[in-house]
Amino acid sequence: MKRALLNPGWRTRRALRSAAVLDEVVDSQVGMVPGLPPELRKRSADHLAELVLLAQSYRHYAAGWIDRRELEHRACAALDRMESRRGPRLGQLTERE
Q: Record's superkingdom (predicted)?
């Protein structure tokens, strides 16, 4: 196992907590998707899928598999994909240190 997971530092703990928060958001919203009108269902499912992928990126960062720059790149890419399916800016998805 990676050293970061055996003795997690504050960055690792924060990344894992961020992943858990994203998981909680997805878990709380996924049940509503089938009840949405068809025109909103796909977009909502796509947004939730992006959040799942972002949570996984936070776990990869916590494990030391990717660095902060790659995490930020993945978060920006996820935000860009979500914004292309939406209109207004969604906001920042990574925390600043």
A: Bacteria
